[in-house]
Amino acid sequence: PFLRLLEAQLQDQRREYEEEVEALKNEVDAMKEELEKQQQAFLQTLQLSPEAQVEFGLQQEITRLTNENLDLKELLEKLEKNEKKLKKQLKIYMRKVQDFEASQATVPAERRQHERNMQVAVQRKEKEFQGMLEYYKEDEPLLIRNLIT
Fold it and tell me: Keywords in UniProt for this one (predicted)?
């Protein structure tokens, strides 16, 4: 059974590794394509006049900024959606806390007093077993002698 568990874990790790390698290969291929496009664009701009090169560079920068802006808008939408979800959860938890507090307010005063007494007793009990010993400095040799014997 233990060996099978280890084999299953090894297979899971191998599968995750292969998926990761495949994703990285795809990413490398996409980067190669992007690099080829940039090289072709660069060669084309070298053949243009200086004014056309500046205009082409500006167009490229506008395109890049537009794409970046769209990415930021998507991120903003995700964050706003997450914020709404968290606000809903907060409202639910606040209602639960209020309900709990209201239910505690209806508990009779004597029961609450009894619960407090129980808590105090527990705290005192815990203090008794802390492993600390209080003694006077002049009693230390006697205490050590008694502990040894």
Answer: Coiled coil
**Domain boundaries, position 40:** 1-47
pTM: 0.39
Residues 6+ apart with CB under 8 A from 110: none
Give pLDDT tens digits for 61-79: 999 999 999 999 999 999 9
Structural domains counted in the chain: 2
Same domain, residue pair 32 and 63: no
SS3 (DSSP) at 149: coil
* 55 & 38 share domain: no
**What does the radius of gyration of the chain's CA atoms come to, in whole angstroms?**
36
Amino acid sitting at position 32: K
The model's pLDDT over 101-123, given as tens digits with 9 standing for 90+, comes to 888 877 655 565 656 555 554 44
